[in-house]
């Protein structure tokens, strides 16, 4: 895919690993003005604090957090910072689930359509919260929802917004990416697969 500039946008990438298998999650943040190095560092601080206080608590310890990569995607070859997460691994109790098992947090905007909804595949779901082959417990679903609402609120408090990035319009590439603010998080109890989100 060719590079598509997105105004005011910071791409946040978390590189993790579970039993030597890499896992990559990507989020997009709207800083509401031309991106600066200070914006990258401020966004990193918010995400790293969130991982340390919230995100790690829903992930089994076999998942290790290896790198943050934050990039200004408003221009080609934008500024980038790379950092080691403060928290080394997940802390949720319980043994590992199947390698491809993941829990989805759906990122909802005020609009309908695929280009206006995002997903985060939470890796390392603990077996202790698995109800059956298809479902996690309602308690786990609620915990995941709270974790991502906390991220939304932390970004808003810092003057930015978690966003869904659309690069397509009517199946054609946009000239410029479109950011739409995330306004809510939806979780259900269904177990999903993160196979497509692994890096190999």
Describe the protein's architecture and organization.
- The chain has 200 residues and is α+β, with helices and mostly antiparallel strands.
- It has one domain.
- 18% of the residues lie in helices and 39% in strands.
- It is built from two helices and twelve strands, in the order E-E-H-E-E-E-E-E-E-H-E-E-E-E.
- The chain has a six-stranded antiparallel β-sheet.
- A hairpin with a 2-residue loop joins strand 7 (130-132) and strand 8 (135-136).
- Helix 1 packs antiparallel against helix 2 (138-157).
- The longest helix has 20 residues, at 138-157.
- The chain is globular, with a radius of gyration of 16 Å.
Record field, number of beta strands: 12
Helix content: 10-25%
Give the uncertain stretches in residue-range form: none
What structural class is derived from the secondary structure elements?
A: alpha+beta
What is the ordering of alpha helices and beta strands? EEHEEEEEEHEEEE
Taking the alpha carbons of the first and last residues, their distance comes to 19 Å
Strand order of the largest sheet: 4-3-1-2-9-10
- What would the principal axes of the Cα set say about the shape? globular
Radius of gyration: 16 Å
Beta-strand residue fraction = 35-45%
The whole-number mean of residue pLDDT values reads: 93
Number of helical regions? 2
Task: Note the main sheet.
Answer: 6 strands, antiparallel
**Tally of separate domains:** 1
Provide keyphrases for this structure.
single chain, 200 residues, alpha+beta, 6-stranded antiparallel β-sheet, 4-stranded antiparallel β-sheet, 2 helices
């Amino acid at each position: 895919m060719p590079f598509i500039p997105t105004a005011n946008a910071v791409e946040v990438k978390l590189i993790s690993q579970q039993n030597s298998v890499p896992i990559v999650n990507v989020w997009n943040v709207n800083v509401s003005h031309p991106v600066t190095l200070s914006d990258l560092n401020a966004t990193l601080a918010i995400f790293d604090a969130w991982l340390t206080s919230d995100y790690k608590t829903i992930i089994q310890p076999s998942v290790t957090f290896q790198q943050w990569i934050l990039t200004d995607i408003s221009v080609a070859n934008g500024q980038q910072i790379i950092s080691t997460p403060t928290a080394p691994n997940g802390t949720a109790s319980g043994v590992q689930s199947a390698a491809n098992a993941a829990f989805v947090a759906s990122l909802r905007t005020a609009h309908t359509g695929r280009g206006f909804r995002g997903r985060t595949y939470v890796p390392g779901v603990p077996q202790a919260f698995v109800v059956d082959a298809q479902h996690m417990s309602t308690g786990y679903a609620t915990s995941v929802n709270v974790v991502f609402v906390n991220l939304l609120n932390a970004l808003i408090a810092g003057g930015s917004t978690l966003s869904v990035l659309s690069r397509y319009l009517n199946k054609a590439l946009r000239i410029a990416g479109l950011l739409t603010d995330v306004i809510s998080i939806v979780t259900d109890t269904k177990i999903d697969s993160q196979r497509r989100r692994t890096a190999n």
